[in-house]
Amino acid sequence: MSPTPPDSSPSGAPLRFASFEIRPAERQLLKAGQPAELGTRAFDLLLALAERRERVVSKHELLELVWPGLVVEENNIAVQVNALRKLLGGDVVTTIPGRGYRFTAPADAPAAAVAAPPSPEAVPAGVQPKALPTNLPRVLQTLRGRTEDLAALGAMLDQHELVSIVGAGGMGKTLLAQHLLARHSEAYAHGVCWVELATLDDAAALPGAIAQAAVLQPGPGEPLAALAAALAPLSLLIALDNAEHLLAAVAEVCQALVHAAPGLKLVVTSQAPLKLPLERVYRIGPLAVPQGPLPAAQALGFSAVALFAERAANADARFALTDANAADVIDICRALDGQALAIELAAARAPTLSVQRLASAMQDRLRLLTASRNRSAPPRQQTLRAALAWSHGLLAPREAVVFRRLAVFNGSFSLELAQAVVAETGPQAEAAGLDEWGVVDALSELVDRSLVALAEAQHDMSDLPRYRLLDSPRAYALEQLQVAGEAAALKQRHAEAVAAHFEAEWARSHSGELGLLAWERQLLQDAGNAHDALAWLDAAGDARRALQIASTWLLTMSVGVESERLAMAARCQGWLARLGSDEALALQARCLLMIGRRGYHDVAEAELALATARRAQAQQPDRWLLYAALSHCVLRRTLVLSAEAVPPEMLVELAALEDPAWPPHRRLWRSEPLGLMGLVQGGAAVAQGLRLLREHLALVQAAGGNATMVLFNLVDGELTTGDAEAAVRTAQGLLDSLQGLRDSHRFTMMVQMNLAAALLRLARCAEARALLESGWPVSLRFEWYPSYADHLSLLLAMEGRPELAARVLGYADAAVAREAQIRHASEIDSVRRTTALAGAALGEAVFQQLRQQGQALADEQVAALAFSEARA
């Protein structure tokens, strides 16, 4: 491999950071203007990293740059890095486990060499980006020896809705399924989606986990039924990975989803089948292993040997399968029963042990371990456990401690979170190698040994990886944690660290550092850790830390995942009750704000959040929190009561609180209610409201948020001002932008209604009818049917069916009252026009009589009368 050229700074240009200066031309490092003592290799390494500071530099690249043409051990890098840290400090060179090293000191680079900092993720005009998330790794590991399996599974998918990949742990089911999805990603209109079940221990949360992974908004109602309805119109391939611990629940969900969604295909990986009539089971066995010694060229034709050779070369670029070591590699693969994970664990030791020594030591250890294990377990399961025990036994004491402590993480974790949970503090921590830097070094070793995996998701906007223990190593690590007597202490540490992380993320969410959608995606990577931390804190009675997690988590929960949001809100109410009335008032206010923010019509919750935020100012001043609570209260009063219900002094206070220097993430809280107030107020205020909503749209886009709802409200504003042509253009553009998105059915229904209302203004009744009929079933699920009925009554009146128009209008009256809704400008206009047209055709008395009768109509009767009869 040829080393890459520098990424930063003209060649030979000095680079300054802190009190140091690197002078490449003179090959000199200055400290406070004076030459610093630094070895040749350490200087070369520092220069290589500094010149490539925009990225991580791998170990292999550093070896080529610093020791060109020489054969040296990788630990030489660690020796030089430690020397640099002693001289420069610990924050100049950062270890990225599994990736390499990065120069992280703020540098005063020449102006021409400084790249513009990336701007926060922005949303183009319209709605969220159209890229459909797959949750697959950005780069898949090579799939060895599964070509025929992959082809067979593809053929099964073409013929069947539910395919289960079944095999023992460590066989490679996950990687096979990932390649299957990647190969078929273009075959489905709504793409493919990977759902990890290993972190899930509550069967009731399964529908929500699928919805979250697929970025769906199922809406209110029973979770499984709502999920099925959301998937019904989609063409989508979903994989449910590691289902063996939730077999009954997964079977129930799969059966319901397949029956409800004709365009859905499901792949399940598990150690046991679901035992459903519609399921087709594909069992995978071990990788192919030669039966006896073979030359290297022939041995590489067997997938087990090819996997070993590849992973050993990944661990040490100098490794190659030769005729001299091929027989020993074959013996290792045969001893491990061709299990992929066990082979990877062994291959990771190739750099430190010769293959011959590895084969001998490993076979002896495996015989001892399998002889002492439960013989009732399947043979291959005994082999994997023995391989894990063998690999664990070769760890240095520090790595063994870090390995078992990482077991408290549920799913993936960041380096910072690992350091917070695993590292020790105090004077003895560094001596034991368990300070923060020691944990980094240990994690690097565990990644190299294949005991910890890199977990890189497509949606991660950061260049820093995340890590995770795979299922089998994690189960073994949990046992070791119990044996060491550290389980309770580490779970407490984990809960405290997750709470601190979510507390910091609350501030980060509105700091302007990251786009809103990107922030949500990053936070949701710790959903498994948040789940476990909340359970521990709840049992421990630690309401404050539980609220720190939950209130931040609620910020990511849209109204679409209604059951999960309501459940979390209910738990928050319980934790709030445990706090004293004057305890942590800012946290209480923030939690109440989030409970109400995601609600629909509750003014009382908004008033309570505002009152608590006011009380909190004396205890812990937070100008933006008061601003947000006040904005939310104005919004709820406007939408639930009326624009007149907002006292002028509220608006004056809100304007005084806003800081023009705030990022758009903060200021958009005020721009929304002000814009909607104009629309609700009507008359001359509508034009002002429309202008403010356009300002709000610009803020949402600048903050990297989802602008769909803002555009929907803009259509409302254009309708209210009488510009039906503009409303049609805006609504049609929004409708087009929603096409192909998985979670668009709710928003599509809403936009279809507003577009139909605009078309009715232009007397384009046939187009309006098609839209109202298409959106009607979804409107019933999301409680938008009262507004739909208002516009439907106008359509019927314009079609010359005044009797039915009057009855549907009566149905709408009852629906508005039943759902405690208020009619806004567009609906009021449709009611007015229906009353005029149908009243003139029928006479006032008959019209009112039919309108009264219509209040007793059921939902299905309205659909039959308005749509079925029209088709007849």
Your description of this structure?
The protein is of the alpha/beta class and 872 residues long. It is 58% helix and 6% strand. The chain contains 39 helices and 14 strands. It has a 5-stranded antiparallel beta sheet with strand order 4-3-2-1-7, with helices on one face. Strand 10, helix 8 and strand 11 (264-270) form a beta-alpha-beta unit. The radius of gyration is 31 Å and the shape is globular. Mean pLDDT is 86; it is low at 109-129 and 372-377.
Distance between the termini: 73 Å
> What amount of the residues lies in strands?
5-15%
Q: What's the total number of strands? A: 14
Mean pLDDT: 86
Number of helices: 39
Shape: globular
* Share in helix: 55-70%
User: Radius of gyration, Cα only, in angstroms?
Assistant: 31 Å
The strand order across the widest sheet is 4-3-2-1-7
Low-confidence stretches: 109-129, 372-377
Secondary-structure-derived class: alpha/beta
Query: Main sheet?
Result: 5 strands, antiparallel
